Amino acid sequence: MRILEVREKTCPIASPIRNAYIDFSKMTLSLVAVVTDVVRNGRRVVGYGFNSNGRYGQGALMRERFIPRILEAAPASLLDDSGANLDAHKVWATMFRNEKPGGHGERSVAIGTIDMALWDAVAKIEDKPLFQLLAERYGQGTPDRRVFVYAAGGYYYPGKDDRQLKDELRSYLDRGYSVVKMKIGGASLDEDRRRIESALSILGPGQRLAVDANGRFDLDTAIAYAKALRAYDLFWYEEAGDPLDFELQATLRNYYDKPMATGENLFSMQDARNLIRHGGLRPDRDWLQFDCALSYGLVEYLRTLDMLRQHGWSASRCIPHGGHQMSLAIAAGLGLGGNESYPDLFQPFGGFPDGVRVRDGHVELPELPGIGFEGKSDLIREMRALTE
Ligand SMILES: O=C([O-])CC(=O)C(=O)O
Ligand SMILES: [Mg+2]
């Protein structure tokens, strides 16, 4: 078998929302198709992938470096021992040839997106759900198809008042979520305190609020927010300071003993390891949000999970950023703590297969070959338009 072609298309996911750091008025992502010469169930196997929101499309890097490296490699050098399927680790190594270590900028997004499409193809060629394949190869043998998901939103939006914020978050709770997340740090502390108290006022028993500062705060501001937030029973306090300021994160634990979360802007096992070594995070309560689609894909995420194990962290402390089905499959296959979801944003990307409902803050993944994109009609329509 061989890879015939790798296609990329940059798609808009623009919206007028803003977090504490950026607005999404020009946001894009890369949609990728890895076309193989294998036929399964009467259809050519094509693996699909896309990068999550926040880092823009990466077509230029893909076309200049990563796609040519794959297509120029001897086809047999990309296959597993059986010769009947791709080996995602070998394709990854081929993409990374002549890349120096460190400085994991945008190339981790380009490689991560192609990696997603590769795993989709690998699982489709095996004719099984990716979560099943992962549980068998790297996990406990059996997946847990019931995955915790939380609803992310609560963005700043022109003219949005507290009533609209409450209506938005209430609509997520009405759809079965038990944890909802809102943005902070894009307004004054007083204003954010008022927004948070509004949001808390709509929660019922067993329902929780998480807040996300998107790396906006310097140490003094992060501490001031920590002192204010510790009065509330928040699900977590996310990304207070710059993603690479491990000392800030480590200092913050002296002011906030409740759960914190971070990691969505760390794009390699090595950066994740620095967070674990130097960030002062606590394996009994804090959460790790590394997102494979932005950080060199599942091949690298497996290295990150290994690193976490070596440092005494359970995979169940990981709830990835990004709201895509790839992390859902990893969560079900490898026992992550759950996954993010954006019920009303960045469509048709992310989300769940049609008919999957959130109940008590969990979804149950259906048995679809690959990552499961074929089960989401609006998404697969866009994906197939890339190749058919
Ligand atoms: O607003 C964003 O960039 C997305 C984000 O941080 C999240 O989903 O946690
Ligand atoms: Mg975040």
UniProtKB/TrEMBL annotation:
Native source organism of the sequence? Ramlibacter aquaticus
- Which regions span the lipid bilayer? none
Q: What is this protein called?
A: Mandelate racemase/muconate lactonizing enzyme family protein
Q: Pfam families, from UniProt?
A: MR_MLE_C (PF13378), MR_MLE_N (PF02746)
Could you tell me which residue ranges the Mandelate racemase/muconate lactonizing enzyme C-terminal domain spans? 162-259
Domain of life here? Bacteria
